[in-house]
Amino acid sequence: MQRVSFDAQLVLQQFPPPLDVAALMRAARTLGLKISTCAIAARDLKQAQLPLVAFRNDGSGARLALVLSADSKTALVAEREAPPQDVPLSEFSKRYAYDMLVVRAPSEEPGLEAALTDRPFGLRWFLPELLRHKAIWREVLAASLVLQLVGLATPLCTQVIIDKVVVHHSSSTLAVILAALALFIGFSALLSYARQYLLLHTGNRIDAVLGMRTFEQLLRLPPRYFETRPTGTLVARLHGVETIREFITGAAASVFLDVPFLILFLAVMLWYSVPLSLIALALIFLLAAASVAVTPLLRKRINEQFLLGARNQAFVTEHVAAMETVKSLQMEPMVAARFGRNLADYLRASFATRQLSNAYGVLASGIEQTLSVAILGVGAWMVMTQPGFTIGMLVAFQMFAGRLAQPALRLASLWQEFQQAAIAVQRLGDLMDAPAEIYSLHPARSPNASGRIEIDNVTFRYRDDLAPVYENFSLAIEPGSCVALTGPSGSGKSTLARLLQGFYLPASGSVRIDGRDTRLLAANELRLYFGVVPQETRLFSGTLLENLAVAQPHAGIAEVMEACRQAEIHEFIESLPQGYRNQVGENGAGLSGGQKQRISIARALLRRPRILIFDEATSSLDKETAEAFARTVSRLRGRATVLFIAHHVPASLAVDRVARLDGQGARIERRDQKQRQSGP
What we know:
Layout: H1 8-14, H2 21-30, E1 34-39, E2 52-55, E3 64-70, E4 74-79, E5 85-88, H3 89-95, E6 99-104, H4 112-117, H5 127-131, H6 134-151, H7 153-168, H8 171-219, H9 223-227, H10 231-249, H11 251-258, H12 262-272, H13 274-321, H14 323-328, H15 332-385, H16 391-432, E7 453-460, E8 470-477, E9 482-486, H17 493-500, E10 508-513, E11 516-517, H18 523-526, E12 530-533, E13 542-543, H19 544-549, H20 557-566, H21 570-575, E14 583-584, H22 593-606, E15 611-615, H23 623-635, E16 641-645, E17 657-661, E18 666-670, H24 673-678
Parallel strand pairs: 9-16, 9-17, 12-15, 15-16
Antiparallel strand pairs: 1-6, 2-3, 2-6, 3-4, 4-5, 7-8, 7-10, 10-11, 13-14, 17-18
Helix pairs in contact: 6-8, 7-8, 7-16, 8-10, 10-13, 10-16, 11-16, 12-13, 12-16, 13-15, 13-16, 15-16, 20-22
């Protein structure tokens, strides 16, 4: 429709079910298109910007349709697997819903949002999201202005009561003023509630976007990012999203909105008395100076507290995940002692932070009390010495000064929250600014994929200060062949599997799949080539069907069952009480190693890969189970290119070649049928 190329398999892989209108709109935006919803009656199609995406509402199978053109009587409509046809407008309104999608080519000029989101992650990152809700912010600002204007009523009415009503004993005027004040208070309460509702609603929407983008960024980071950072530390950084949300949606927003309108109160105070206003300003500036002075130390202590908390979380996560090892080695006393020391360090840092915050709060409270006493003392002297300055004016000024000081005092109480949010933004920036893998929906690989692997003069090392794992290493694997990769520990067998999938990049040389350099393929497109059976199969809490379908979310139950038959696990699953709906515990609790490996094969086959990698898949199996597993793999020979990585090649595995790695290169040997039967 807009002549934008895309790969349907990549789109389906990136957008799992359920496929609804929201998923369709996300896919279009990912392809760089502008898409929006609109309500168009059939009679208005002639004036609409075509083409449009319409939705069937008569319960038929074809849910989507393209409206290509329209005149005063008919509309030209194309549905899936059917030629375009003219539909009378009277029939169109019955067949299709009013709500349609408008799809347009994107503008070539990047907007403000794109420019800002490309910048390093920081507080400026939130600006595009805030700008999305301009209408709401206008309403909130208007409500804040009205609230400040209403706030002028109480001091003014108090002055009138003291200077006029009490002096003249006018009870009727008092009743009118009190009634007006009651109305003002009720109106102010309703308006405050509405404003806070808008702030919470907008904050939650921003939080949803931030949380989703953060997790999507986490999922798109390369594996090497996770290898250098403990899991607990990453989880602690993700918790920073909640800290930022609480700051944005809490009292901070209302305080920052009220601050600009304090100029109004300051103007009224100056009209009442310049000397008293200068006293109030001097003390408020003193409070601001104290805030600036305490900031470096407070930030340092909050940062230390965050790091120690992240260390604690990483320690707990690591040892809970390895609880079987902890118990088998009787490490409980040592682990408990280390946790106690870590906890003590964290509590000391937390106590120091709270003490500093408490001292700052006491100082701010003392400044507020000094402000009240200074205004009361100087104001009383002015009442006695200046005939034009009355007691009612003094009381009113005291109330105005309190309204002026309240946001400053709330800012003081929010200062620690602001520093915590700033630290959370800084730590989250390590994740958000990290280079992510490239994902794309535009095809770059060959449409006739065969699964040929070419490794040409590859040199790779984990770090610059380490010896190379490979140096000028070359290997070619023909499509449909089965190659066993063996060698001692540390020779780079599993590293090669990760290089093929783009988890690592070679320092020199190239890795090509079907003639395409893997560095030129998007990560999601490259990994569509592969089905991987790792050494340790990870299963997630849920049903067996859910664990199998994660490899191909759009697969039907028939496809899942066929993959399980090929992996020779179908009969076992059917024998379970609930079959494919049977629940499995975390990491496949209740299943044997061989059963989990066959489930892993079924998962890999469900992806219909061109290359199957078995990475030490038999290392944790006994010999009999490993041989049965190898026979299953042999039956897959010819359906895809098979790379079988193992220390020793099972005798039952039918392979074309064996590549033995020795840390410097590969020694290739061919195996005929007789050798296959006799083993390595």
